[in-house]
Design brief:
This protein is an alpha/beta fold. It contains 14 helices and 15 strands. The chain has helices at 61-76, 85-91, 98-115, 120-123, 143-156, 171-180, 199-204, 223-231, 245-254, 270-283, 296-306, 320-323, 354-360, 369-375; strands spanning 5-21, 24-37, 43-47, 130-132, 135-137, 161-164, 186-189, 213-214, 236-238, 259-262, 287-289, 329-330, 339-341, 351-352, 361-368. Helix 1 (61-76) packs across helix 3 and helix 5 (143-156) crosses helix 6 (171-180). The longest helix has 18 residues, at 98-115. The structure holds 2-succinylbenzoate and magnesium ion.
């Protein structure tokens, strides 16, 4: 296939509620939606998970636009692409900028699956018809507020509760949760808020039978995590620290984690996500699919990836309606009894609602071969 046009749109969507992590609070979600079109005008869709500020990782919406406009789009325009696995190889000379690469690669995967008349899940080698999901709950003003949200989420059927922690909102909060909910599947995500010197505090969390502690230490660390994991009974799950299958291999061999959270954007795309999944199968580590407060297109990609067999733990892909008054896809993602039914229609399996997209678009740019040449 050949990509004839690429359309970048910057969307702004209002979150239904503020979402607070150890590194900051989200009120809105600004992101880039990528549309690629083939010679027949068929569209594939991808979503960048880069945020406005470089607080989760170093990428931002603007750095992604720059990388897409000036490097990545010109690299794939009019190229004969036999299979989307070739895209990550094409992008290989560009260092890092994984979320920018992933947004475009994801759109090409969707287009490929549509052209093959198969679902994205099947195109990736996925086998599940439904996937199990959990929910990620931000830091709240009071423990009572948090307990109420957990209660609602458990009632709705979410299969696993993840709570965000940070210094000052950790051991005591988890103790209170366990008192009220002795047997739920529970985990904590620190988003890199601790240091090796916090080891005694982290060890106190062993008491609460957590499924895992996600990314306690620095976002680029795999060395200190190995030291901490040796002293913890609770499995460590790495999120921020894993950018590639090579990172995963090193973390596994050092013993830095026992579980990996795969985020498609963080690792540079679906092809790299599959590689990490396969490596974890070889080494007996379970994986699960993380979330980045995605709108519908990103959510759909997460669902397709989660159909791979070793995604054995519930992911963070909650229902569209948890985050948005109105999502950009139809139908919206719904969760029943903690399960999402995987769509079977071609590509991502959800229609992008162009009217909704237009209403939310604050910037738009169309790239076609002629303009790219003219610019040189
Ligand atoms: O670390 O998984 C994370 C949200 C924003 C940035 C980082 C993270 C998160 C979440 C929420 O935990 C995941 C979601 O519900 O999409
Ligand atoms: Mg995380």
């Amino acid at each position: 296939m050949k990509i004839k046009n690429v359309i970048l749109r910057q969307l702004k969507m209002k979150l239904k509620f503020p979402f607070t992590t150890s590194f900051g609070t989200f009120l809105d979600k600004d992101f880039i939606l990528v549309e690629v079109q083939d010679e027949n005008g068929l569209s594939g869709w991808g979503e960048s998970v880069a945020f406005m500020s470089p607080l989760y990782n170093e990428e931002t919406l603007k750095t992604n636009w720059h990388l897409l406009e000036d490097f990545l789009i010109p690299m794939i325009m009019e190229k004969e692409i036999g299979h989307p696995d070739e895209v990550s190889a094409l992008f290989e000379p560009i260092r890092k900028n994984n979320m920018a690469k992933s947004a475009l690669e994801g759109a090409i995967w969707d287009l490929y699956a549509k052209r093959e008349n198969t679902s994205l899940a099947k195109a990736l080698g996925g086998t599940k018809q439904e996937i199990e999901v959990g929910i990620s709950i931000g830091i709240q003003n009071t423990v009572d507020d948090l307990l109420t949200i957990i209660d609602d989420s458990v009632t709705q059927g979410y299969r696993r509760i993840k709570v965000k922690i940070k210094p000052g909102w950790d051991v005591d909060v988890i103790r209170e949760i366990r008192r009220s909910f002795p047997s739920i599947q529970l985990m904590a995500d620190a988003n890199s808020a601790y240091r090796l010197s916090d080891i005694e505090l982290l060890k106190q969390l062993d008491e609460f039978d957590l499924m895992m502690i996600e990314q306690p230490l620095a976002s680029d660390d795999i060395v200190d995590h190995a030291l901490v994991q040796k002293q913890l009974a609770t499995p460590i799950c790495l999120d921020e620290s894993i950018h590639s299958v090579e990172d995963a291999r090193k973390a596994i061999s050092l013993g830095s984690c026992k579980i990996i959270n795969i985020k498609i954007g963080r690792v540079g795309g679906l092809t790299e996500s599959k590689r990490i999944h396969d490596l974890c199968v070889e080494h007996g580590l379970p994986v699960w699919c993380g979330g980045m407060l995605e709108a519908g297109v990103g959510r759909a990609h997460n669902i397709a990836l989660t159909t791979l067999a070793n995604f054995t733990m519930p992911g963070d892909t909650a229902a569209s309606s948890r985050y948005w008054e109105k999502d950009i896809i139809e139908p919206e993602v719904t969760v029943h009894d903690g399960l999402i039914t995987v769509p079977t229609t071609p590509g991502i399996g959800y229609e992008v609602n162009l009217d909704t997209v237009d209403n939310l678009t604050v910037r738009k740019q169309v790239f076609e071969k002629a303009t790219l040449t003219a610019r040189k």
